[in-house]
Input
Amino acid sequence: MKRNVTITVNGEARGAEVEPRTLLVHFLREHLNLTGTHVGCDTSNCGACTVWLDGDAVKSCTVLAVQADGGEVTTIEGISADGRLHPMQRAFHEQHGLQCGYCTPGMVMAAIKLLEANPNPTEDEIRTGLEGNLCRCTGYQNIVGAVQAAAAVVA
Amino acid sequence: MAIATDTRNGIGESPLRKEDARLLVGRARFVDDVKLPGMLHMALVRSPYAHADIVSIDKQAALASPGVTAVFTGDDLKFAAGVPCASNPTGEMVHPARPPLARGRVRHAGEPVAVVIAADRYAARDGADQVVVEYTPRPAAIGVDAALRDDAPRIHEELDSNVALVLTHRTDGVDAAFADADVVVEHTLHNQRLIHVPIETRGVVADWNPASDDLVVYSSTQVPHFLRTFLAIVCGVSEAKVRAIAPDVGGGFGAKLNTYAEEFIAAAASRAVGAPVKWIEERSEAMLATCHGRAQDAHVQLAANRDGKVLAMRVHYVQDYGSYLQMLTPLISQLTLLMAPGPYAIPELDVKVTNVYTNTVPTDALRGAGRPEATYAIERMMDILAGELGMSRTEVRRRNFPTEFPFTTAVGLLYDSGDYHGALDRLLELSDDQETFERRREEARSRGKLLGRGLSTYVEVCGFVPSDVARTVLGLTPGGWESSTVRMHPTGTVTVITGTSPHGQGHATSWSQIIESELGVPFADVEVIHGDTAFAPYGLGTYGSRSIAVGGTAVHLAATRVREKAQQVAAQMLEAAAADIEFKDGAFSVAGSPGKQVTIQEVAFRAWQAFDMPEGVTPGLDETVFFDPPNCTFPFGAHGCEVEVDRETGKVKITGYIAVDDCGNVVNPMIVDGQVHGGIAHGIGQALYEGAVYNDDGQLLNGTLVDYLIPSAAEVPTIRTERTITPSPTNPLGVKGIGEAGTIASTPAVVSAVCNAVGAADLDMPLQPETVWRAIEERGAG
Output
């Protein structure tokens, strides 16, 4: 039995009829064609699917679309306005914080929330703070550098 | 009119990557982002048994499941050939049959048995759960020891035993050298079974158009052209009708250097249902059914003199192939054989490789592919030899470095260029002296921490591979060249079409730098096309750290041809002889009269017009080169690692890491550093955390990322990257390759450091806390 859900995604109310078991990430990707949010593991370990739900970074492979009904979601497509990159996106570019780029949207979404909670983190705090987002390409060094660079810009 | 040419983005500079923009904003296109009209979804039914006979498959319930369009078994989908293997080291090796969908028998848990095609991925998975397969389980052989027993269950009936292949290489003086040696050290090293874990799993969209009989396949692959060729062979269709596309690919590490059953099944299913079919691998499937890596033991003896000089090496590598041959399975341990002596001038060598079938997922290339195994074995042995001789770990290495290059090894490889002492010197310059380290070690001991430091010196073989070597030494089906097209457009911009197939390596950026250096066309005016068989002449793809040395060189050579042709056209435009034309900063001028010049962009326009062309010069500036390298390349370096081990828990923290790598000339230092960082993190994963574990029944016990730990940011240290530069004489760019160096070097360096911390001669990876804690307890190191 399908259910109607309405979620405000990147500032716009979006409704669809979905199976109750539909994951938020599949709602975003399949129903709304917002394919910037990726799936990497199915077990909430890799963080490639990280989006913001009601202001918190969540792993959208572990949230049902019906749980997000009435909520506000921001995806990677929603953080750069008027063709201008978010400072975190720009920092990832300038610090070479991405290679294949598959983990990048989730990593960027998590990193922005990390800085919101702790605007001036130490290197250890960044590393621990991003533990839930896995990258197999970069060795994380330039990701850490990007978060530091973004912190300097935002601060 | 001269266009000012900005040469700041040529070879040796670090322009920011062209690839990033779409990846940063969520507008990349990975295979799961491909959506075609009428597209259906595929889910696989996989064997739960490691070894079993299929008695029956009942599709009825699945066909009745909502949304299900079709269910296919191995009897329904017909293939003209099995899953291919492109490696036959002896030329006489038997390649066991491997239908894409199992027929009659399954040989590893996770082998595809049936597929369900449905309206969406949820319905497809529901349907797959409804397929009822009856099996008769057979005894399984898990691990090489079990598979080599006399009474072991036979995995392939085409063979007399589970031994797939034995390779040997032996020089004449081995026994004499052992008889004369002052010291013999002997040890067994284990390279555990690893899982690649690119963050994007495999995926494929196959679109067989029944009207035109064309097949378009999008796949998350490192080798789109091999995929096209093998789709043609396995599906029995004209290769000219097949187009394979590698869209944005989310990491590979060797896992996607393969053509898989699922790619052929999706294509055949698309033909059968007359609609596009998408399959996106779940992570648990990726762990269970994508090839694995390593799974090799090395039994090593070194014979040496008291002064540390190694006289001879005997080594028996035993490789677990898993249940079948993937595309390059036999090549991997063959590369171990070729690199057995590592960066040391060991005059006498006796190498044997025994390759064994087991009822597990096939093994194949994993970042480093055979070279990490060789490096790990010889590096650990050099540490053990140093301990036996009471010599420092650096000194024993120095006593065995070759100093004259090119250097021919006892295996017969020609190391192209090197300065192994130079790299080690640089590492030591950057490291604390022993006295300082010992002081810190004492201080740490008072905090309950055991400090240790270790190193590795390595050489690897990259730039795969001269085609004659592919044939005569390696027994590969394809050669090892690479192609590139460089095309100048009428308005002066450039399209590069490369046969390499990047998935994070930044070829669009580096290839653009090569063009700017060669043609003076600004970096920003260059576009690079890759990963689509409809564009490139043919390409062998990206793996084995080959792209810059072979593919980058092809780009350089094609650009050189464009420049040479442009020079003839420019001569006509300048009314001078071609021999009198000079080229600088993107403009041609007549020697001695620099005021009169034409830019290469103006020449491109004239060549497109083809007005007043010189005699014998054809229209256009569009050149294609196939480059076959004369030798491989041999990057090398020295890595140092410091660890802090918690005495109470055995937990290892890497507190310092210095990488000195020499990959020849460097096109983009930023990208090279990034490759080194990532490679080291991967090697740390093997040293400390990773390892696929099967139980005796052949069930994979850690088949999710919950219990297979790849390093997160918290497990990886800040790495200091340094370089020495010894250009390769193998190609005109002087480049060698860097994608795997970090992985090859870091694993033994980390293990060396942990052993140093706890006072052990050697420990078996992964060095998880329990292993290290037990070592501390046994030795009373606390």
The mean pLDDT of chain A is 96.
